[in-house]
Amino acid sequence: MSSSRTHYEVLGVDARDASTEDIKRAYKAAALASHPDKRASRVDGAAGDNSEFLKVQAAWEILKESASRAAYDARLLETARRDADVVVSDEFDIDDMDAEGSSPTKFTRRCRCGDAYEVWSDELLASFDAIDVPCASCSLHVRVRLTGGAAAAKFDAFAMATAAATAAAAAAAGTKDDAAS
């Protein structure tokens, strides 16, 4: 990954187990600590650099909603996989993997060590052309192409259903807010 901090690092939370409430609390504390008006009173009374505050705001905008957080997590995962300096031992289409379940779908393919490569549909982004997937047991990686075919169509359907569910939840939350007013 690049030398810049992740949104989780900016807020000081653990990406693996931080709940939305944990992220919200961390955001409020970080925003208060880095707010230019608050910093000015602590330093020399002059308005200071607000770059840290802007990073905190950007982190909150991504991590506050489950859909944008999931997309960000998928990008982090793919970046980590690509930056790991791995050697890709094989390349194939997602249609060459076995698909189990739906929402999310688990795609698997047997590795030559006897274990399996696996990737979940919610780890994939529509903007991906391919993803490097590690074996669960050995050091081998494969590159899975995500374009065309029935499995890719299943992934696209999952992505559209997730987007629709997120939009419906946002609309319902807006309706509740309007009714409470």
TrEMBL record:
Keyword Metal-binding belongs to the record: yes
Pfam families according to UniProt: DnaJ (PF00226), Zn_ribbon_CSL (PF05207)
UniProt domain DPH-type MB: residue ranges: 88-147
Domain J: 6-76
GO molecular function terms noted in the UniProt entry: ATPase activator activity; ferrous iron binding
Keywords: Iron, Metal-binding, Zinc
Cross-referenced SUPFAM superfamilies: Chaperone J-domain (SSF46565), CSL zinc finger (SSF144217)
Leader sequence residues: none
Alphabetical list of InterPro entries matching this protein: DnaJ_domain, DPH_MB_dom, DPH_MB_sf, J_dom_sf
Family: Belongs to the DPH4 family.
Protein name (record): Predicted protein
The organism of origin for this protein: Micromonas pusilla (strain CCMP1545) (Picoplanktonic green alga)
Lineage, opening ranks: Eukaryota, Viridiplantae, Chlorophyta, Mamiellophyceae, Mamiellales
